[in-house]
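Allow me, if you will, to draw on your knowledge of protein folds for a short while. The matter concerns a single protein, recorded as an amino acid sequence and a row of backbone structure tokens. Could you please explain, in whatever detail you think fit, how the structure tokens follow from the sequence? I remain grateful for any guidance, and I place the record below:

…
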Amino acid sequence: LNAMGRAFLPRARHVLGELETALLGMVDLSERIHGLVTVACIPSAVDNFVAGVVRDFHRRFPSIRVRLLDQSAPDILLSVARSDADFGITYLGTREPDLEFERLVDEPFVLACRADHPLARRRRVRWAELAEHDCVVLAPGSGNRLLMDQGLAQVAAKPRWTCEVQHVPAQLSLIEAGVGIGAVPRLALAGGAGSSLVGVPLVEPQLARSVGIVRKRGRPPGAAVQAFHDALVAAHRPRGRASDTV
């Protein structure tokens, strides 16, 4: 080494030492955190919103167990309020003073149909056009149905249903079997039962739901819960967008 290199060498060794210490600290942290994280989750988000996060989280924190409660949106609010779940993943916001909702992504509703259906090759479909086809719809009382009923209040021609179900996965299975077509959240088609179906944007109006995390306000999370929360946020919140909690 020349004189400049010899002068820089101690600083380089110091920087590398700090980096090694930080990396060892991360490994040590992953080994030291233990516990159980209980998450209530809407069924349509398990496959495409949570499964990959759980897989990667387990690799990083093998001593933390994750329990998923696949529930309807109203039941998720109850589970979080009663502390049966550490937090919930849902699309139904809350006005309860002791709960807070942290928005992660906005998810539009799309038309789900088989590739051989006449509407499958369309660039977009108007909601009113669904009245001309057999539809598989969600039952009244479900959170998705509530959002759609509110958004379609001014649409004269409503979808004509042939079959009614409680949850999106069952809806997708019936659509795939050829019973009819249906409006579903876009992420529901990303995998599982809806992976072979076609999704066509629905317009006039454009409806969307906000998927996020609901938890008790003012309840400090444990280390394991905070680690899983951070993993979810890192995986799904768009880069550069600040926290949106109400």
The first helix runs from residue 3 to 32. The chain has two domains: 7-105+211-245, 107-209. The mean pLDDT is 84. The chain is about 35% helix and 25% strand.
